[in-house]
Design a protein that fits this description.
Oligomer: single chain
Strand content: under 5%
Structural class: mainly alpha
Distance between the termini: 51 Å
Largest sheet: none
Number of helices: 3
Length: 56
């Protein structure tokens, strides 16, 4: 049930057809920023969140 080389190539070609070559770097940049923000938020200790709530 794994993905082989032909399936991966087909997916890449479909993405290129849908978005074009110029949009893909922008999409990857946005995806990278989103993943980074998610990791930063998930690494925040619980105590810091409570301190922020008291400050408000």
């Amino acid at each position: 049930m794994g993905l082989g080389a032909p399936e991966i190539i087909l997916i890449i070609v479909a993405i290129l057809l849908l978005f074009g070559g110029k949009k893909i770097p922008e999409l990857m940049r946005g995806l990278g920023k989103g993943v980074k923000e998610f990791k930063d938020a998930s690494n925040t200790p619980v105590n810091e969140d409570k301190k922020d709530e008291k400050a408000i």
